[in-house]
Amino acid sequence: MDFEGQKLAETLLYRLLIVFAAIGFVVGYAAGSFRLMVLINAAGLAATLLVVVPNWPFFNRNPFNWLPPLNPEDAAAGGGSSSTAGGASSGSSASRGSRAKR
């Protein structure tokens, strides 16, 4: 499940629980049955969990790309696999600092 899928799952969770709670309250109040209200809420919870808990394909619409793995030699040297990982930015800031002192 990607990050957008997690957001969608959370939104669905809240909305479905609120809808089933409202339906359960109205039907239970109209019928005068607390038991019916609880049963509708329990069925709504079960339906919501069935929708939200499994990793359905629509939760994976926005896959994210991981960073490439570091080589063991580069990791030991403190560098990364990209050319701008640390050497270019630290070198340019050091040169800026030496210019400011002059």
From TrEMBL:
It is a multi-pass membrane protein. This is Signal peptidase complex subunit 1. PANTHER family: MICROSOMAL SIGNAL PEPTIDASE 12 KDA SUBUNIT, SIGNAL PEPTIDASE COMPLEX SUBUNIT 1. It is found in: Endoplasmic reticulum membrane. Component of the signal peptidase complex (SPC) which catalyzes the cleavage of N-terminal signal sequences from nascent proteins as they are translocated into the lumen of the endoplasmic reticulum. Dispensable for SPC enzymatic activity. Its main location: endoplasmic reticulum. GO terms for cellular component: signal peptidase complex. Residues 82-102 have a biased composition (Low complexity). The keyword Signal does not apply. Keywords: Endoplasmic reticulum, Membrane, Transmembrane, Transmembrane helix. GO terms for biological process: protein targeting to ER; signal peptide processing. It comes from Monoraphidium neglectum. It comes from the Eukaryota. Belongs to the SPCS1 family. The chain crosses the membrane at residues 12-31, 38-59. Residues 75-102 are annotated as: Disordered. Pfam families: SPC12. Signal peptide: none annotated. InterPro entries: Spc1/SPCS1.
